[in-house]
Amino acid sequence: MIAPFHLKDYFIPKTVPIEHRWVDAKDGMKCQISILRLDSIHPVSGGNKTFKLYENVTHFFDGNFDGIASVGGQFSNHIAALAQIGKDFAIPTVAFIRGEKAAVPTITVRRAMENGMQIVYVSRERYREIRIKGNPMIDFSEYKNYFFIPEGGSNDLGVDGSKNIVNFIPADYTHVLCAVGTGATLKGIASILLDHQKIIGVKVVEAKQEEFIYKNIDAITHDKIILNAEYLFGGYARQHKVLDDFVMKWNEKDSIKIEPIYTGRLFFAAQQLIKQNFFQASSNILLIHSGGLQYVVH
Known about the structure:
With 298 residues, the protein is of the alpha/beta class. The protein folds into 2 domains: 7-43 and 165-296, Rossmann fold; 48-153, 3-Layer(aba) Sandwich (Rossmann fold). The chain has 10 helices and 10 strands. Helix 2 (48-62) crosses helix 6 (156-162), helix 3 (77-88) packs parallel to helix 4 (107-114) and helix 6 packs across helix 7. The longest helix has 15 residues, at 48-62.
């Protein structure tokens, strides 16, 4: 299948805005942070997902596949983005969704179906089997020629696509902060950051080490990475009053919206690190807004 001529233009924007905000620091002082607005690319398919899916969709068009399959939860940003992209490029898509079918589908699942995605609910045990198998589609006769993208778009192609984010990170930033799920975005960015730049990955899930793609980062790249697991708030997507209050207050006063699973934890962590004097006075701090607002866009 021949890739559309505008494929790269769809996925990789010409520019991404950077906005500046003042946040609380120590002893009543304020500190300026900058925010890379990947969320501004598209409310559903934008954020870091568009970058992780770029090389994956390119690979689909380069091959002789019938469609694209993936896995995710019922609020998955990745599934929402893939369904949107499937609609925009007329690519058949199917998602294997973890858990039982709900009486009322989530906003994410409903929109995915409206965008033409087939939804297959699987048990948690079956889900784990699918997500760890190299090419699980060989077990499904109707989807055996579908290109499989792992959970969250996190494979080598996803890492390669994430490298494009660095094109929008000016050289004068000393610290780049991003939320970390599977770690593909982190790995892609870290692999080509400049020597004087560090990336702080704020973990949002405490999974086993072997589930993270960043386990294979080489020693040179690893020198640029600081992983922070202090802001898990009890586990992935768990509600926590301190975090929820922070997100609510931020959204009440600011036009840049955040959500509690990824960007909320990231923004909270950044402010806490600033209050703890983690950064030197000369530091120039950039937060990557990875989107994740698809389930609040109706």
